Amino acid sequence: MRLPSPLFPGRIIKRYQRFLADIQLDCGTVVTAHCPNSGSMLGCMTPGSPVLLSQSHNPSRKLKYTWELVSVQGYWIGINTGLPNRLVHEAIEAGVIQELQGYTSIRPEVPYGTNSRIDLLLTGSPGCCYVEVKNVTLREGEMALFPDAVTTRGQKHLRELIEVVRNGARGVIFFVVQREDCHSVSPADAIDPEYGRLLRLAVKNGVEALAYQAFVTPEAIQIVRPLPVML
User: Fold this and answer.
1) Nearest CA among 188, 218, 175, 185 for reference residue 75
2) What is the CATH number of domain 84-227?
3) Residue 113: is its pLDDT beyond 90?
4) Which residues pair with 54 in a beta bridge?
5) Peptide bond preceding 36: is omega within 30 degrees of 0, i.e. cis?
6) 8-77 has which fold?
7) Where are the domains of the chain?
8) Quick one: three-class SS letters along 71-138?
9) Phi, psi of 76, rounded to the nearest 5 degrees
10) What is the DSSP letter of 194?
11) E-assigned strands of the chain?
12) Which residue intervals define the domain SfsA N-terminal OB in the entry (predicted)?
């Protein structure tokens, strides 16, 4: 996936109200940018960290800039949670995700469960496969952790994937690690122990937990390789 060009460099001043961030651009101007991430962004919003912003030319937008990437210890990290669904979609079509091959149709945002929408619904000769995609940016040691804040919505998704499998379809929880300095993925039990419990329960009941790492640069983000999920 190509990122918008040009991206505007700056440094984070502060993030607040979840979806707002004050950024000082390299030219010295301070702007308020949209932060497309509802998590805590733990470890990804240290004041002074280098960031890259995209710019919208839509005159109806209140905020002209969107925060796309942050650099932590020399690695670019993708914080835009609106991108992972597209990244997975592209990677399936490119044959990168071997576990999800053989389907002839990929549909986004299909209603299922209780007032939910599945991120990707795959259909074809193997049957139906419901794929719930999660963006992972939190790191501890060499391990990526999810979630970075308590997520009742994420807990609900796991319960619904369990029901999907019970009803005879395939259910997949898919972790997209948008950073290159991790070698495995694990539930963040210290942050959301209920999510960790439900993830293990889901896997025990046939839900598949997949994780793939993305190569992140200022030009593009691309899913490149699988990572083990440690439960």
Assistant:
1) 218
2) 3.40.1350.60
3) no
4) 66
5) no
6) OB fold (Dihydrolipoamide Acetyltransferase, E2P) (2.40.50)
7) 8-77, 84-227
8) EECCEEEECCCCCHHHHHHHHHHCCCCHHHCCCCEEEEEEEECCCEEEEEEEEECCEEEEEEEEEECE
9) -80, 140
10) H
11) 8-16, 20-25, 30-34, 50-55, 65-72, 75-78, 105-112, 116-124, 127-136, 138-140, 143-146, 170-177, 184-187, 208-216, 221-227
12) 13-79
How far is residue 157's CA from residue 163's CA, in Å, rounded to a whole number? 10
In angstroms, the CA 146 to CA 139 distance is 9
CA neighbor of 174 nearest in space, from 113, 215, 112, 118: 118
Distance CA 150, CA 213 (A): 23
* CA pair distance 169, 113, nearest whole angstrom: 13
pLDDT per position as a tens digit, 157-201: 999 999 999 999 999 999 999 999 999 999 999 999 999 999 999
What is the CB neighbour count within 10 angstroms for residue 67? 27
Q: Is 214 exposed, middle or buried (0-12, 13-18, 19+ CB in 10 A)?
A: buried
Residue 20 CB: number of other CB atoms within 10 A? 14
Please count the other Cβ atoms lying within 10 Å of the Cβ belonging to residue 220. Answer: 12
Q: State percent of the chain over pLDDT 90.
A: 98
Q: What would the pLDDT profile of 19-73 be if each residue is shown by its tens digit?
A: 999 999 999 999 999 999 999 999 999 999 999 999 998 999 999 999 999 999 9
Rounded CA-CA distance 148/59 in Å is 33
- Residue 114: is its pLDDT beyond 90? no
Name the pTM for this structure: 0.96
